[in-house]
Write a structure and sequence with these properties.
Chain lengths: 113, 111
Protein backbone atom coordinates (compact mmCIF):
# COMPACT_ATOMS: atom_id res chain seq x y z
CA UNK A 1 0.00 0.00 0.00
CA UNK A 2 0.91 3.66 -0.18
CA UNK A 3 3.20 5.02 2.51
CA UNK A 4 5.12 8.12 3.57
CA UNK A 5 8.43 8.08 5.43
CA UNK A 6 9.92 11.20 6.92
CA UNK A 7 13.00 11.82 8.96
CA UNK A 8 12.68 11.51 12.68
CA UNK A 9 13.07 14.50 14.88
CA UNK A 10 13.45 16.50 16.79
CA UNK A 11 15.48 18.82 14.64
CA UNK A 12 17.08 21.70 16.53
CA UNK A 13 18.54 24.63 14.59
CA UNK A 14 19.78 28.09 15.31
CA UNK A 15 17.94 31.03 13.80
CA UNK A 16 18.95 31.70 10.17
CA UNK A 17 20.21 28.15 9.66
CA UNK A 18 19.20 26.10 6.61
CA UNK A 19 16.52 23.47 7.00
CA UNK A 20 15.92 20.22 5.17
CA UNK A 21 13.33 17.69 6.31
CA UNK A 22 13.43 14.53 4.23
CA UNK A 23 10.28 12.83 2.97
CA UNK A 24 10.01 9.82 0.69
CA UNK A 25 6.91 8.04 -0.48
CA UNK A 26 5.64 4.89 -2.11
CA UNK A 27 2.50 4.97 -4.20
CA UNK A 28 0.98 2.74 -6.83
CA UNK A 29 -0.92 5.52 -8.58
CA UNK A 30 -0.45 9.24 -9.17
CA UNK A 31 -0.17 10.95 -5.82
CA UNK A 32 -0.45 14.57 -4.91
CA UNK A 33 2.03 15.49 -2.20
CA UNK A 34 1.62 17.90 0.69
CA UNK A 35 3.45 19.42 3.61
CA UNK A 36 1.37 20.38 6.61
CA UNK A 37 2.52 22.33 9.66
CA UNK A 38 1.16 22.02 13.19
CA UNK A 39 1.87 24.82 15.65
CA UNK A 40 1.53 24.08 19.37
CA UNK A 41 -2.08 23.57 20.43
CA UNK A 42 -3.43 23.84 16.91
CA UNK A 43 -4.61 21.63 14.09
CA UNK A 44 -2.67 20.97 10.93
CA UNK A 45 -2.46 23.65 8.27
CA UNK A 46 -1.49 23.16 4.67
CA UNK A 47 1.97 24.61 4.06
CA UNK A 48 2.49 23.70 0.40
CA UNK A 49 1.55 21.14 -2.19
CA UNK A 50 2.60 19.65 -5.54
CA UNK A 51 0.34 17.63 -7.79
CA UNK A 52 2.69 16.16 -10.41
CA UNK A 53 6.30 15.29 -11.04
CA UNK A 54 8.76 18.23 -11.08
CA UNK A 55 6.22 20.60 -9.54
CA UNK A 56 7.65 22.87 -6.87
CA UNK A 57 5.42 23.95 -4.03
CA UNK A 58 6.38 27.04 -2.06
CA UNK A 59 4.98 29.13 0.78
CA UNK A 60 6.38 31.34 3.57
CA UNK A 61 9.94 30.71 2.37
CA UNK A 62 9.53 26.94 2.40
CA UNK A 63 9.93 24.89 -0.78
CA UNK A 64 9.56 21.27 -1.82
CA UNK A 65 9.99 19.67 -5.23
CA UNK A 66 8.07 16.57 -6.32
CA UNK A 67 10.77 14.21 -7.55
CA UNK A 68 9.34 11.09 -9.12
CA UNK A 69 12.70 9.52 -9.92
CA UNK A 70 13.70 9.47 -6.26
CA UNK A 71 10.11 9.35 -4.88
CA UNK A 72 10.92 12.27 -2.64
CA UNK A 73 9.39 15.55 -1.51
CA UNK A 74 11.94 17.12 0.83
CA UNK A 75 11.02 20.31 2.66
CA UNK A 76 13.61 23.11 2.56
CA UNK A 77 14.03 26.61 3.88
CA UNK A 78 17.08 28.76 3.49
CA UNK A 79 16.86 30.68 6.76
CA UNK A 80 14.62 29.52 9.61
CA UNK A 81 13.08 31.73 12.26
CA UNK A 82 12.02 31.02 15.82
CA UNK A 83 8.42 31.28 14.63
CA UNK A 84 8.99 28.24 12.37
CA UNK A 85 9.17 25.99 15.43
CA UNK A 86 6.41 23.44 14.87
CA UNK A 87 5.75 19.87 13.78
CA UNK A 88 5.87 19.23 10.04
CA UNK A 89 3.98 16.42 8.33
CA UNK A 90 4.53 15.07 4.86
CA UNK A 91 1.41 13.56 3.26
CA UNK A 92 0.09 12.13 0.06
CA UNK A 93 -3.27 11.72 -1.58
CA UNK A 94 -3.49 9.19 -4.36
CA UNK A 95 -5.85 10.13 -7.16
CA UNK A 96 -6.55 6.45 -7.84
CA UNK A 97 -7.98 6.16 -4.32
CA UNK A 98 -9.06 9.62 -3.28
CA UNK A 99 -10.56 8.29 -0.09
CA UNK A 100 -7.15 7.86 1.48
CA UNK A 101 -4.73 10.38 2.81
CA UNK A 102 -1.44 9.03 4.12
CA UNK A 103 0.57 11.04 6.63
CA UNK A 104 4.13 10.65 7.79
CA UNK A 105 4.89 10.50 11.49
CA UNK A 106 5.82 14.17 11.70
CA UNK A 107 9.11 15.94 12.39
CA UNK A 108 9.39 18.38 15.24
CA UNK A 109 11.48 21.47 14.49
CA UNK A 110 12.82 23.68 17.24
CA UNK A 111 14.55 26.91 16.27
CA UNK A 112 16.67 28.65 18.88
CA UNK A 113 17.25 32.40 18.98
CA UNK B 1 -14.76 32.06 7.43
CA UNK B 2 -14.06 28.53 6.24
CA UNK B 3 -13.62 26.27 9.21
CA UNK B 4 -13.89 22.86 10.77
CA UNK B 5 -15.26 22.99 14.31
CA UNK B 6 -14.77 20.25 16.85
CA UNK B 7 -16.31 19.97 20.29
CA UNK B 8 -15.32 19.53 22.99
CA UNK B 9 -11.68 20.68 22.86
CA UNK B 10 -10.84 18.82 26.04
CA UNK B 11 -12.56 15.97 27.84
CA UNK B 12 -11.64 13.81 30.81
CA UNK B 13 -13.94 10.87 31.35
CA UNK B 14 -14.01 7.34 32.71
CA UNK B 15 -13.86 3.92 31.12
CA UNK B 16 -17.15 2.74 29.65
CA UNK B 17 -19.00 6.06 29.62
CA UNK B 18 -20.24 6.69 26.09
CA UNK B 19 -19.09 9.94 24.51
CA UNK B 20 -19.48 11.79 21.24
CA UNK B 21 -17.09 14.26 19.68
CA UNK B 22 -18.84 16.51 17.20
CA UNK B 23 -17.36 17.83 13.97
CA UNK B 24 -18.93 20.37 11.66
CA UNK B 25 -17.63 22.04 8.49
CA UNK B 26 -19.03 25.02 6.60
CA UNK B 27 -17.32 24.49 3.24
CA UNK B 28 -19.81 22.03 1.70
CA UNK B 29 -17.03 19.44 1.49
CA UNK B 30 -17.94 15.91 0.50
CA UNK B 31 -14.99 14.23 2.18
CA UNK B 32 -14.59 14.14 5.96
CA UNK B 33 -12.26 12.14 8.11
CA UNK B 34 -11.25 11.46 11.70
CA UNK B 35 -7.66 10.96 12.86
CA UNK B 36 -5.95 10.28 16.10
CA UNK B 37 -2.50 11.64 16.84
CA UNK B 38 -0.19 9.79 19.20
CA UNK B 39 3.49 10.48 19.97
CA UNK B 40 5.78 8.73 17.53
CA UNK B 41 2.88 7.43 15.44
CA UNK B 42 1.85 10.55 13.58
CA UNK B 43 -1.72 10.79 12.33
CA UNK B 44 -3.70 7.61 11.92
CA UNK B 45 -7.02 7.58 10.15
CA UNK B 46 -9.96 6.20 12.13
CA UNK B 47 -12.91 6.58 9.74
CA UNK B 48 -13.69 8.60 6.68
CA UNK B 49 -16.76 9.55 4.69
CA UNK B 50 -17.00 10.27 1.00
CA UNK B 51 -20.50 11.75 1.26
CA UNK B 52 -23.78 11.59 3.17
CA UNK B 53 -24.54 8.04 4.36
CA UNK B 54 -21.19 6.81 2.96
CA UNK B 55 -18.61 5.91 5.59
CA UNK B 56 -15.69 3.53 5.69
CA UNK B 57 -13.01 2.30 8.03
CA UNK B 58 -9.58 3.80 8.12
CA UNK B 59 -6.51 2.22 9.64
CA UNK B 60 -7.57 2.12 13.31
CA UNK B 61 -11.40 1.88 13.49
CA UNK B 62 -11.72 -0.51 16.45
CA UNK B 63 -13.72 0.97 19.31
CA UNK B 64 -15.12 3.86 17.27
CA UNK B 65 -18.30 4.59 15.32
CA UNK B 66 -19.24 7.42 13.01
CA UNK B 67 -22.30 8.64 11.17
CA UNK B 68 -22.88 11.03 8.28
CA UNK B 69 -26.53 11.99 8.21
CA UNK B 70 -25.85 15.51 6.98
CA UNK B 71 -23.10 16.77 4.74
CA UNK B 72 -21.71 19.25 7.27
CA UNK B 73 -21.57 16.95 10.33
CA UNK B 74 -19.44 13.90 11.06
CA UNK B 75 -19.55 12.91 14.74
CA UNK B 76 -17.15 10.41 16.28
CA UNK B 77 -18.71 8.07 18.83
CA UNK B 78 -16.93 6.05 21.47
CA UNK B 79 -19.55 3.61 22.76
CA UNK B 80 -17.41 2.20 25.57
CA UNK B 81 -14.21 4.21 25.86
CA UNK B 82 -11.06 2.58 27.18
CA UNK B 83 -7.76 4.09 28.38
CA UNK B 84 -6.00 3.14 25.12
CA UNK B 85 -8.26 5.63 23.36
CA UNK B 86 -6.66 8.48 25.26
CA UNK B 87 -5.33 10.61 22.45
CA UNK B 88 -5.55 13.83 20.46
CA UNK B 89 -8.28 13.63 17.82
CA UNK B 90 -8.64 15.66 14.66
CA UNK B 91 -11.49 16.02 12.24
CA UNK B 92 -10.76 17.13 8.69
CA UNK B 93 -12.69 17.88 5.52
CA UNK B 94 -11.88 18.51 1.88
CA UNK B 95 -13.05 18.29 -1.67
CA UNK B 96 -11.94 14.89 -3.06
CA UNK B 97 -8.18 14.76 -3.60
CA UNK B 98 -7.66 18.30 -2.35
CA UNK B 99 -5.75 19.46 0.76
CA UNK B 100 -7.62 18.87 3.97
CA UNK B 101 -8.87 21.48 6.40
CA UNK B 102 -8.38 20.45 10.00
CA UNK B 103 -10.19 21.30 13.19
CA UNK B 104 -8.22 22.45 16.24
CA UNK B 105 -8.33 19.04 17.86
CA UNK B 106 -9.98 17.32 20.82
CA UNK B 107 -7.83 16.03 23.63
CA UNK B 108 -9.46 13.00 25.24
CA UNK B 109 -8.30 11.48 28.51
CA UNK B 110 -9.99 8.25 29.54
CA UNK B 111 -9.31 7.10 33.08
Amino acid sequence: GDSVTQMEGPVTLSEEACLTINCTYTATGYPSLFWYVQYPGEGLQLLLKATKADDKGSNKGFEATYRKETTSFHLEKGSVQVSDSAVYFCALSDLTDISKYIFGTGTRLKVLA
Amino acid sequence: EAQVTQNPRYLITVTGKKLTVTCSQNMNHEYMSWYRQDPGLGLRQIYYSMNVEVTDKGDVPEGYKVSRKEKRNFPLILESPSPNQTSLYFCASSAPGQPQHFGDGTRLSIL
